[in-house]
Amino acid sequence: MKKKHFKYINTLFIVFPMTLIMAFVGIIRHYGFDGGWFFMFLKTWVAMLPIAYVAAFIIIPQARKLT
């Protein structure tokens, strides 16, 4: 795999499960397992994924510089 593609796929593998966990915890914490929680979870996760993915490309280089 080319290094250019590796960066994007690696970031997706980090962001994907992290946003799933965060969306699940947020929905369950605020709304519980009431009716329709699963669709609310999916709607929240779909909104979070692209935002977190783009933010990761902004944050990761800055974090590397700091370390």
Question: Could you characterize the architecture of this molecule?
Answer:
The protein is mostly helical. It has one domain (3-66). It is built from two helices and no strands. It has helices at residues 3-31, 37-66. Helix 1 (3-31) packs across helix 2 (37-66). The chain is elongated. The protein starts with a helix and ends with a helix. The relative contact order is 0.13. The model has no long low-confidence stretch (mean pLDDT 92). InterPro entries: DUF2798 (IPR021529). Pfam families: DUF2798.
List keywords for this structure.
mainly alpha; 88% helix; 67 residues
Architecture blueprint of SSEs:
Layout: H1 3-31, H2 37-66
Briefly summarize what is shown:
This protein is mainly α.
Low-confidence stretches: none
Helical content stands at over 70%
Shape: elongated
Tally of strands = 0
Please give the count of helices: 2
Specify Rg, calculated over alpha carbons: 15 Å
- Report mean pLDDT, rounded to a whole number: 92
Number of structural domains: 1
Alpha carbon gap, first and last residue = 27 Å
Largest sheet: none
Percentage of β-strand residues: under 5%
Order of secondary-structure elements: HH
> Structural class of the secondary elements?
mainly alpha
